[in-house]
Structures are given as structure tokens and as C-alpha cells.
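Notes from the pairing session

We agreed to fold both candidates in a single pass and log them together. This is the raw record for the first candidate, unedited. Please don't reformat it; downstream parsing expects exactly this layout.

Candidate A
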Amino acid sequence: MIPARGFAGRQVALFGLGGSGLATARALVAGGASVIAWDDNPESVARAEAEGIATGDLHSAPWNELAALVLAPGVPLTHPKPHWTVELARAAGVEIIGDIELFARERRAIGGDAPFIAITGTNGKSTSTALIAHIISASGRDCQMGGNIGRAVMTLEPPKADRFYVVECSSYQIDLAPSLDASVGLLLNLSPDHLDRHGSMEHYAEVKARLVEKAEAAVVGVDDVYSAAIADRLAHTGKQVLRISKNEPIEHGLFAEGAELYRAKAGKREHIASLEGITTLRGEHNAQNALSAVAACLAVGLDVAEIRAGLASFPGLAHRMEPVAWRDRVLFVNDSKATNSEAAAPALSSFERIYWIAGGLPKEGGIESLRPYFDRIARAYLIGEAAPAFAATLGDSVDFEISGTLKAAVDHAAADSFQDVSAESVVLLSPACASFDQFRNFEVRGDAFRSAVLALKGVEPIGGSA
């Protein structure tokens, strides 16, 4: 845990007692703050009270005496309307911050030399974060990973000079971190997302840009118009910006040509690494993740040999194009984290012959946007509530069956793929749907897929799937 000592001896309000909120409350108490914690969920309040954290309805809190309101990232700050705690704090002139801001302040106070890599973007940030942390750890360095990926940032070990931090930041977290000052800030990409919480694409992009604006070194993907504009704007202010592109060569920065990664300076290219044969980094989208990791790791002092070794040994991110097993020429891949059509597109674009398991609780728009990949699908196996709608979209374009359950889909897809004489095929779970109709979350769904695959006769587990 990182004790939040910056509020020692002062009173702080905290709203939102989910996983990260509760962790933040513990850190504030450990740092000597007097905390008044609250949540709209009585069960969350009871859980905090059971840990000895002081709770109280913030409607009646002494706002004029409070040093800060620490807000959980899931609580609306601006749109669709500010949460009632935000309105009370603003009326009293109380600053509103989140756990990433607490971390940034503690790092400056007690471990300002600790290398800090912060990652954001609409897509790919979890894989990039996990890849960067893996490369640094594989090099033998002390690396802490957290934030929006898995582990609340204040539960990490306290900062010190030789301890590296790799922190995934959502737009909500950045919005609550006004002094966020990473050693390296990465903005991977931008596309419309969470606009109900930001009001407009312009505001969403402005929030995301803050992460790179205050970073010592800024790394920006330039394959979309929003991010490219941010890179240009930062460069015009005199800030050094390292651009990355998975789509085309660039004059100064890092780019990919297929599976090959290059660094360019004044138009001269240097080969950095190859992703050829690295199953966990397959596909164009992973080229961007790898470029981001290379840029960040070079910026914090790793050498090219260390980076190449880390790329080659990357085990992948669970539930995101995760290789599970092989049998003969068939690869089984768990992409359960693809909970909408946009998220499913990278996996469908990465394989040539696919036995596709899709469906669940449908999202708006269905799978119509995936039509460009239909010719890659040998057969589809549809599950959950979305099955009839997906069947209607596939129509005569793709052979399909309505399997109903995930277990049936795995068994049928395996049987069909084992009969396929193609050089290589893949049984791919990439649902393009939420999981809530049949599973508690996408992790449980992915675990169920993995278990069903490993129960098949003759399959060979890959990596951590054993």
C-alpha cells in the first residue's frame, strides 16, 4: 500500500466505495487523514464500516472544513450532470481529485525519481500496459503495474528511485488528476467513447490529452485524426513528441511495416524488433501496442536487446486474444474481452480462417460493422440473447448455427475445425457482446471458454492455460 500522507491531520471526504474507492480510503487512513466515506450502496458502506473506516452521509458533511473530495472514477464529474457530492464540493470551494492524483502527489513527495509510465487511449491500453510492465519485469527491474488494469494504484508498493510504475489511466481517472506528471505519457489512439460522461468528442479528447501534456516525454499514436491533432498541437508548443504509427512510415518516431518495427530519425530507419512468430502479439492492432511499449521502454532506459527479449516472452493479456491451446492446425483463442463489435474487429482481422463463437447480451449496432470480415469466417456459432439478431445479420453471407451455450459452441466449433484441411484455422471466442445474460462478467465467460477448450481430447495448452 502507498499511504496518502499528503492529507495527514486533515479531514477528507471520499465518495464511492467499490474496489478502488475502498483501497483509496485505506491509503488515506494509513497516511493519517481523517476520512468521511460514503456510497449510494448500503452494502458498500457496511463493508467499509466493517474495516473500521469512518462513514457518514456526505449530504450533511462539514464541507467548509474539508480539505478534499476524493471521488471514485465511476462517479460523474461533469456529464450527464455532476454528482451531488461534486456540486456540494464545488459550492464550498473544495478540490475534487481521485486516486491517480493521490499517487502522483505521493510519488513527487517521496519518490520523485521513480520512473512512471502512464498509458491511455480508447483501445489497446490494457494490452500496452501489460506488455510494458512485462518487458520491464523481464529485464530484472522492480516494476509495479496498476491503475485501470486490475490493481488499484494505491495498493502498489511505495515509490522509490529504482522502482518502475506502469499505470493504465481511464479518461475518468485523468479527469480527477490535475497534476498528473508521468515520466512517459502514452496516448495510443482516440475514437468516440464514453461521450455520455464527457458530453462531446472534443471534451473527451481534451481530457485524454492532459496525460501527455504534463508528461516529461510524450508518446502519441498518430493513426487517427484526433490523436494526430494533439501531437501537432504539443509539438507547436515546443514539447518533444515521439510519434508512433502502425499504418505508415514516419519521419521521426516509431512505425511498423507488417510484423517489423522500426525507429526513424530524420527519415533514416533502424530495425528495432520483429513480432513474427509471437502469437500473443499477432495482428495490426498489436503492432501499435508493441510500438508503444518499445517507445516507453526506450524512454526509461531499457536497451533494444532487453526489449526484444520481453516482446518475445510476452504471455498475453488474459481474455484479450489469449492463445489457449493447439491441436493439429487449429489454434483456440480467448477474446472474451471483446464486448462490442469494435472490440471484436482486431481479432477477426488477425486470422484468415475463423470458427467464430459470438453472442451474449447484445450492444447497440449489433455486428453489422464487422461485415468486412465475414469472408474470413468459416462458420459462426451463436450463443445467448444476441443469437437471433446475429443470425439475421449473417444471413446468407456466413454459415452459422445457433449453439445456445458456450460449451456447445466450443464442442461444435472444435469438431468442425478438426475436419478442416486448411493450413491453419482458429476457434475464436470474440463475442461482440456483453456477458451478463449467461455470465457474471467477461472474465468468467473467458474462463468458461478456456475450461471447455482444455477439456477437449488431444489439445495442447499454451503458456499459462495449463
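Candidate B (folded immediately after A)
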Amino acid sequence: MHTFVNRIVKQFVKENLSVFPAVVILGPRQCGKSTLVKNMFDEFDSFQYLDLQNRDDLTKLREPGLFFKENESSTICLDEIQLVPDLFSVLRSEIDRNRRNSRFILLGSASRDIIQKSSESLAGRIGIIELTPFLISEIEHLENFTLSRFWYRGAFPDSFLANSDTASGLWCENYLRTFVERDIPNLGFQIPSRQIMRMLSMTAHLHGQIFNASKLGESLGLTHPTVKRYLDLLSQTFILRVLEPYSTNIKKRLIKSPKVYIRDSGLLHNLLGIRDFNALMGNPVFGASWEGLVIENICSSLRNCQFSFYRTATGDEIDLIIQKNNKTIAIECKASTAPKLSKGFWRAKEIVMPQMSYIVAPVNENYKIKDDVLVCNLSEIIEILSKELPK
């Protein structure tokens, strides 16, 4: 990657390294985990980087105890840790032998639920951080940044920074193929790659909609439990975001099923065969694509918040509800420069009673509709929420 992008999470990684003997950075493959750590090389007295997909590096760990002892004063980075789960028990005894902070940085392409051994073996010894592909706040200052480019190509570094939309599309296509043919089997799941690809394709068509496992199962010829299992797997490998419904004791008939989103808009557009931004603008998924982009950037920019959506059986709806420290904020996403709100939004707002509501739209300037309802763009909402809900 030729363009250097300063990742916001870098400071949080440093804070964790000053507290824990091991820090694990989790995120999808190719989101920039190794680049982030390699950019921190000069901040360590001594540094060893091992890529566990590389046979030579793997050979160095034939006797892991010996290698760790030999490099006791170094910070050791183990990339793609999920490929060698047996290492976690060795790491635990090594950390217990010498509990110096920032001894290990572990990089993984699956969530902590899949890498269960890390949370079991290293409980209390490890800081866990999630790194996503680029956030708008990390790249909006770049010379070649435009909102339409970011929205269409998505946030994976190699896709966003590609020379053309065609090159970006080829990258996304290759990423998805590698994901279903190599990454899933590497995690120990014996699932036919065609089945996972069909599930991804069908889910792309349901992007931003209520997830009906039975209906999807019928279309795919799979049982309800199998569809749920695949959904969990795609969520824990950072491809899907599952947004749970708002739950409270109000007497309205609330929708109980979650909404699903393809987390990266570039992968979404590739799965739907949308070849450029003009084609996206004419596609029925246009509004849902914007909603996914907004929700992904907000959820990935904030920590320790509860996220949900509100929808009743009669269609009253708020796209995203954020809760933190007794504060409730409502977010409505509108892919229009002149957003209009439905009666259903106002009814939902009366029930949820957020302290503040934001309508996030591709507008140039923010403006108020009411004292507690502000229309703003994607960059501004991230800035506002970072101040209102500090980490």
C-alpha cells in the first residue's frame, strides 16, 4: 500500500500494550493489521514479526518455548494466529513465566468467538482490539478522496486505493473467492464454498432488511439451524454485521429478528454486480447501501456502546439507536441531499425518546429540522458522536 494512512486505533493499541503482556488485533484479512503493526516497528526496542502463513516463519516455532525464551526481550508479532490455535496454551505458560507488558502482538482474521482459545487460555493477560478497514475519518483528508469513491469501492485499503473502479472490482471479486475457498476451510469449517458464496449473494440482496432464516433456508435448500450457523460464521469473520432489534418493555409489537448488512460497501456492490457509482445510483439498493455505509462507520468508530434498530409491526422505524451511559441517540440514514422524514420516524422517536436525533445524508452543510433533530453528513456525525460519546 503506497499511501500511508494513520489509523485511529493506533493510540488504543499503544495503551493496551502498556497494560497487557499480549494484545490481539482482530479484523478481516487485508484490512491493514500487519501494516499498522509494521508502522509501529520503530517504537519497540526489538521486534520480531512472524507470518504463520509463511512456512519459514512457522518452522521457527517448531519449538515455540525455545523461540520465545531466545527472544525474551523482543516484542513478538504473530500474524494469522487463528491458523495455529495450539499456540495459545504455550503463550499462556510463557506469559506466566515472564509477565512483561507488550511481549506479544497477535493478529487474527476471525472474532474472539472463533478464537475461543485466546479468551480461555489468556483471560486477564490479553487486550482485545478490533481493526476495521478504513473509516471515513482516516482517509477524508487524502488527495484522491471523494465520498462517491469511498461509498462505491468500500473501505478495504487495496480496493479504495486501486487505480480504477475496474481494478477495485477485480480486487473485491478475488477477495470473496479467497474468503470462501481458503479462509473458511482454514478456520476448520468444512462447508462447500459454493454454498457460502450463494449465502453471501442472497444476503447481499437482503442488505439492510430484516433477516428471515427460514425464508433464506428455503431459497438455498438449507435448514433453519444451518442458515443461523452460517450467519454466525459470516458475522464472526467480519463479513456481515448483524444489528439486533431494540428491546424494551414498551407495549408496541416490535420486530424480533435482526437486520443484516454486508459490512463493506465495495464487497456488497461486487456481490450485486454493480460496476460503478452511476449504476449504484440507479439501483434499488442505493438507499440501503448508504444506510450500511453510515451504520458501519458509526459502529466501528465508537467503543462500549449498544447498537440496535427500532421497528414495529406497523412500520414505525429508526435505522440505528445508540445507547451509552444512560444516553440514547437516534440515527436515520437518507441517501438524498433533501432528506424527508416519514410519520413512522416521528412516531418511533416519541416512543424511544432519544436525547438527540441525527439524519445522516450526503449534504454539504448541516441544519436543524427541530431543536433535537439535526441533518448532517457522514464526516460530521462521526465527529459529533466522538464528542458526545467519548471513549
